[in-house]
Amino acid sequence: EVVSGESEEESSGVNLMEFSDEILLHILSYVPCTDLVLNVRRTCRKLATLCLDKSLTHAVGLQKDYKVNKDKVKQLLRDIGKEIYQLNMAGCYWLPSSTIDHVTQCKNLVKLNLSGCHVTSLRLSKMLSTLQHLRSLAIDVNPGFDASQLSSECKATLSRVLELKQTLYTPSYGVVPCCTSLEKLLLYFEILDRSREGFMLFGQLMVGESNVPHYQNLRIFYARLAPGYINQEVVRLYLAVLSDRTPENLHAFLISAPTSFAETEATKNLLDSMARNVRLDALQLPRAWINGSGLLQHLKFNNPFYFSFSRCTLSGGHLIQKFINGGKDLKSLTSLNLSGCVYCLAPESTFRRAEDDIDSSILESLVASCCNLRHLNLSAAHHHSSESIGNHLCQLLSRLKHLLSLALPVCSITDVAANVEKPPAAPTLVPQTFGKKIRVGVQTYPRNLTDQTNQKLESSVFWALMGSLRFLETLEVIGSSFSSAMPRNEPAIRNSLPPCVRAQSVGDSEVAAISQLTYLQSLTLAQLPNILTGSGLVNIGLQCQHLRTLSLANLGMMGKVVYMSALMDMLKHCKCLRDLRLEQPYFCAGAQFFQALSHCSSLQRLCIVSRSGTLQSDAVMSFMANCLEVIMCHMFMGESLTVCKNLQQSIVRSFQADRPALNVVIFPLLHEGLTEVIRDVPMRHLDEITLFKSRVAEEPPNLWW
């Protein structure tokens, strides 16, 4: 490549080294730090100097450098350790724990992220004892962690830490009691109710963990709970101190709980104290707290930038009056999560049915008040527009010109007139269940947009919405009744609920409208019943050249993958695609599919979830050999356990040596041992791609550096 590059430079008369230092530094900023220090700087004197520039070595990120191994990290930290002020090793699950010992070379570290790295309490103590300038820390607390093993020097370092992110896999306070100056505390509770041996775990803390956390300087409190009763019990212990004395400077209080998290007397006291003593800028509470407490109306806000009322029964009238400042100016709000908030666009929640139309005046007030919204989530609810001209949900949302990410239910994007004038096409009348396969013949599809009915497309409200949100980077269109076949801690779901009646007409033309989003980076489509050929996917592949993440689930008929041909054509154009997740019954992962997927030269992670799905082992092996960047391959199909295990072992045996971060899980979807397999998946992959969920406005923007 270097030789060919030199010949091109000679012929064109352009020499890369003639560019200014500023331009070269900008180019080098896109190169992984390990390559800069260990390879690029050895090419010439000029690059040797530039590669060690402070702008490139001040902050080092290894979190997505899947090719880095322990030897490279050791050499990197030895060469530039003293120059590093910010080190991010989040999710480097493949590095042995001994690699952490070399972090002591970075004497000037101010920020350190070790989330997803296995660190024992003794190693942590030794490392932190040398990092006297540390102010921001992220770690995991695993079974066996013992705070009594932390040295006095380590505790002295922790006493100066201002920001702490702690992921708990065992009931523990971790290092929180040692962090007496905390201003930001982020807690992720990932504790399982049962141990690997099958014993029930309890929320009591380990012996010697009774020290009280220090929250007096706290400004941001965030807690995210995985499903499970034990996580609720442990977080209550963290909240007990807050309920006794609420920090005066608290301005962000966020608790994300996926299941019912009952309000107690202690939490009522906490909310009461917050209502009397603080003014908030960000708020997220469990739905039971919002639904059952009258104290919420007394909470005061300063310049709120984030609200999440996910899965609560908050009515639109209450939302506008109490939280959106009575419909007045709220330009500070940039992120709003109303996922699963089924009554948020209705004046009252008492008598509303799922099929009722929304109150467009509520949405209009919301859009007018929060004109600077960048992230909006309206998924997991039925938001049906009325026939009133100009009051369609898509028409109102088109006024939000600053949107970067948007999540909508499928039934909200359909044209009301289209539903009234004609019934759904014949294929959509097929029951959305896993029944007998139905022969529908060979489908053909138009290869580009010009072959479609342009007049129909461009007159639709969804087409107009996509045209107005030109800078949108993330889009999710998810059926309001969709649920993934692979939940977190439960067996695979065998049947899915039918799509909303209003969603029956949403199909290929709506997907084609998405191709207008030139800067789209992440796309999720789930439960679009009227997909007949998938022709819109080809348009997206051609036009959305920045697409990095693609998730498709239950498109078209459930008994046949009608969009396979279009999907394979689409993949040939997705040169930037890094993550692909497919969830579809009867999916055939054969030679043709993997041959098309091999065109995605940047692909790093692949996840396929398919009840009764099949795979071709030789095709998978060939794909892995051709796509050198792939480090994650998860397939949950209908094949036998023997076939799955043999293929998984073959992939690991063939490619693990050259791909240190390789993570392979191939397992029957309906096998009783699935939950045990899932618990061994690295949290980075599990949270970002393997498990299906809406990610728009899931947490405040820039919550962690």
Describe this protein with a few key phrases.
Leucine-rich repeat, LRR (right-handed beta-alpha superhelix); disordered N terminus; globular; 29% helix; alpha/beta; 25 helices
Summarize the structure.
Residues 13-60 form the F-box domain. The chain contains 25 helices and 22 strands.
Report on the structure:
- The protein has 25 helices and 22 strands.
- Among the domains are: 103 residues, no CATH class; 148 residues, no CATH class; 214 residues, Ribonuclease Inhibitor (Leucine-rich repeat, LRR (right-handed beta-alpha superhelix)).
- The protein is of the alpha/beta class.
- Helices cover 29% and strands 15% of the residues.
- The protein is globular and about 70 Å long.
- The two termini are 35 Å apart.
- The strands form two sheets. The protein has a 20-stranded parallel beta sheet, with helices on both faces.
